[in-house]
Write a structure and sequence with these properties.
The chain is built from eight helices and three strands. The chain is mainly alpha-helical. Helix 4 crosses helix 5. The protein starts with a helix and ends in a 9-residue tail after the last helix. It comes from Falsiruegeria litorea.
Length: 169
């Protein structure tokens, strides 16, 4: 739901604060959740020169997130709650993976395209149950990454909140 975009962008921003260049993070240098590679591509698209991602403004991050992630997973066409879950998944793991895992969760053709078939299946699903199952699937994916042990605490809080008893292995 597009009316939720300001809230979604704010919530995504809560878990993506400040500049980080962790040696175990395959994304490399990141500020406010935007990698240097994504920022370079954004600047190129805008006709601007490359520059360090460090110090990127909140406004630019929100523009990138809307264009690159929220619109890509059709967050404006999703029910409240699922729009945020998909936006956060897309920002952190890419819109293609987010779309494919939603499709797997729905039991529809997995092609990574948030098209009419996927959206129709979403309208038939129980939203709360769908969000829960999607987040569990996301946690299984994250748990299989080689750098899980380094980032598991933050990822778990980001995806599942502080729910007691959340385990993926």
């Amino acid at each position: 739901m597009r009316a939720n975009y300001p809230r979604i962008k704010a919530w995504v921003g809560l878990s993506e604060e400040g500049y980080v260049n962790h040696p175990r993070d395959p994304g490399g240098a990141t500020d406010r959740g935007v990698t240097q590679r994504t920022f370079d591509a954004w600047n190129l698209k805008q006709g601007k020169p490359k520059r360090p991602v460090r110090g990127i403004t909140k406004h630019v991050v929100e523009q990138i997130n809307e264009f690159q992630y929220l619109d890509a997973v059709r967050a404006a066409d999703l029910p409240v709650g699922l729009d945020y879950a998909m936006a956060d998944y897309a920002v952190n793991s890419g819109p293609g993976r987010a779309a494919k895992d939603l499709q797997r969760t729905l039991g529809v053709q997995v092609d990574g395209v948030m098209g009419v078939q996927t959206l129709a299946a979403v309208t038939k699903a129980d939203t709360a149950d769908l969000i829960q199952r999607l987040c569990q699937r996301r946690m299984r994916f994250l748990g299989g990454l080689k750098h899980w042990d380094t980032f598991k605490g933050g990822w778990t809080r980001c995806v599942m909140g502080d729910q007691p008893g959340v385990h993926i292995r």
